[in-house]
Amino acid sequence: MMRCMVIDDEQLVRELLEDNIRQIPFLQWVRSCRNALEATEALQENPVDLLFLDIQMPRVNGLQLLQTLSDPPLVILVSAYEQYALEGFDLRVVDYLLKPFSFERFLKACNRAREQFRFRQSDRLAAAPAAPVEDFFVNVEYALVKITAADILYVEGVKDYIKIYLSSSARPVLTRMTLKALEEKLTPPAFVRTHKSYLVSVKKITTVKRDLVCIGEKEIPISVSYKANITRLLK
């Protein structure tokens, strides 16, 4: 569902756009504004996904308003004048509706906006940081054993296996898995690689020495390749 705002100084046009929006299932009308100054305040109070923006308005026109927005939503320009089309597309608007327009032409513009909205959503999801893993399962002797990330002290890699040392158990959990694969699950800054064979819970570190980190009495080596990871922790 795309949240929409209408900005136009003509009441009849505002009402037409509102009615059209209500007829399209993937649109939700939020608010209408009579001018750019009113819209500036409204956008701060009610962020939207799509603007239907008139160009010719008193004091501040639609194009000027669009240029003031640091992170503008998608925009469909609505105007009775063809000469602004090129300038509008230079501002990367979705479409340009020339008044008067049919419902079919309006729907076509909205479908274009929906496609761009989907691309934006996909890009944002791809750019979002991975959520930290709290629980996961590992194979141990033909069974799945649940590991809680907060319970991990450190992990030791031994060829194609890893040993997961836990604060709740005297014996490590041994599972067939690479340290790199587990490191991808346990995203920083909660865990830090200190050595090609060791991954350590940052919260469990009690002492940092020149070439060692300590978790209680356990000393874990810091190799030259991963020393920068520990240096960042100490800043």
What does it look like?
It is a single chain. This protein has 235 residues and is α/β, with parallel strands linked by helices. It folds into two domains: 2-127, Rossmann fold (3-Layer(aba) Sandwich), CATH 3.40.50; 135-234, LytTr DNA-binding domain (OB fold (Dihydrolipoamide Acetyltransferase, E2P)), CATH 2.40.50. The chain has helices at 11-22, 36-45, 62-68, 85-90, 103-127, 179-185, 227-234; strands at 2-7, 27-33, 50-54, 74-79, 95-98, 135-140, 143-148, 152-158, 161-166, 173-176, 191-195, 198-201, 207-208, 212-215, 218-221. The strands form four sheets. The chain has a five-stranded parallel beta sheet. The chain has a five-stranded antiparallel beta sheet with strand order 10-9-8-12-11. Strand 6 and strand 7 (143-148) form a beta hairpin. The two termini are 45 Å apart.
Per-chain topology:
Layout: E1 2-7, H1 11-22, E2 27-33, H2 36-45, E3 50-54, H3 62-68, E4 74-79, H4 85-90, E5 95-98, H5 103-127, E6 135-140, E7 143-148, E8 152-158, E9 161-166, E10 173-176, H6 179-185, E11 191-195, E12 198-201, E13 207-208, E14 212-215, E15 218-221, H7 227-234
Parallel strand pairs: 1-2, 1-3, 3-4, 4-5
Antiparallel strand pairs: 6-7, 8-9, 8-12, 9-10, 11-12, 13-14, 14-15
**CATH domain fold name of the largest domain:** Rossmann fold
Distance between the termini: 45 Å
Shape: elongated
**CATH architect. name of the largest domain:** 3-Layer(aba) Sandwich
Helix and strand composition category: alpha/beta
Number of helical elements: 7
Oligomer kind: single chain
Spans of 5+ residues with little confidence (pLDDT < 50)?
none
Strand content: 25-35%
